[in-house]
Amino acid sequence: MTTTLDTTIAFIGGGNMASAIIGGLVRQGLPAARVRVVEPFAETRAKLLADHGVQALEQAGPALADAGLVVWAVKPQVFAEAAAPVRAHAASALHLSVAAGIRSDSIARWLGSERIVRAMPNTPALVGLGMTGLFARDAVSAADRAQVEQVIATTGAALWVEQEAHLDAVTALSGSGPAYVFYFLEAMVQAGTSMGLSAAQAQQLAIGTFAGAAELARRSDEPLATLRQRVTSKGGTTYAAITSMQDAGVGPAFERAMQAAERRARELGDEFGKA
User: CA 128, 160, 176, 271: dihedral to nearest 10 degrees?
Assistant: First the structure.
């Protein structure tokens, strides 16, 4: 795929998520000269240059004035501080925030702009298989949305939500979701080794099973419950495992865990959006 983006893009923050997006854009044909990055850490600036040929600035300045899109890839707790020097140079830009928890009302107040899209990506974006939730304020046009979709497409798939509060649920489900998968994989590997497999064998089997099952679910039109039931013969080995997990309350415990993540996402918005 070749990008059709014809604007200069500025990134505030040059860490892993920004690097993943920049790398995808450059690979799809966006000239490195059309990318601006503000990154205070010299080591990260050097890595951006080495990996993508992108020159990064230590601080915001007039070089941001020609940016049509500004991507906010900063930690939530420093967003307000980072916004202050950018505001004077990017008043007319479209703003895309990947900062967890920071609500668009706060961003609009800090930047003096209503053209704001919030995104909740996840770490598989680093290998082009991310899942990103998106929310746009009313001032964001259809053309703006299309531009955001092109940028996010470099990291994987995207899903728009029409209520900003739903991004907290996206955070709990897909934003934090890779950690749940890794946690479950760790448990499977531990179980495999306790049953006599080597750690390498157990990990290969666990990861391969997760990847294959996820792809089967993605390609299938059938409900997830049907796919599960097809593997779960009454009285068989899978039935024994599923029954054990149900008896242990794994499903409700998992739901409570995700509700805790959603609650924390709301708290982050309250905590860091006050400035």
Answer: 130
CA separation for the pair 20, 131 (Å, rounded): 13
Phi-psi region of 20 (alpha: psi -120 to 50; beta: other; left: phi over 0): alpha
163-175 tens-digit pLDDT? 999 999 999 999 9
What tokens does 137 get?
Answer: 């304020």
Round to whole Å and give the CA distance between 56 and 177: 31
Residue for token pair 């209520």: 163
pLDDT digits (tens, 9 = 90+) for 60-72: 999 999 999 999 9
Q: Among 26, 64, 75, which residue's Cα sits nearest to residue 48? A: 26
Q: Give, in order, the Cα–Cα distances in Å from 123 to each of 18, 126, 129, 166, 206.
A: 11, 6, 9, 19, 19
pLDDT digits (tens, 9 = 90+) for 218-264: 999 999 999 999 999 999 999 999 999 999 999 999 999 999 999 99
Question: pTM to 2 decimals?
Answer: 0.91
Q: Residue 160 in 3-state DSSP?
A: strand
Q: Name the token pair of 239.
A: 């039935």
Give the whole-angstrom CA distance, residue 109 versus residue 103. Answer: 10
DSSP, collapsed to helix, strand or coil, labels residue 221 as coil
Q: Are 37 and 48 in contact (CB under 8 A)?
A: yes
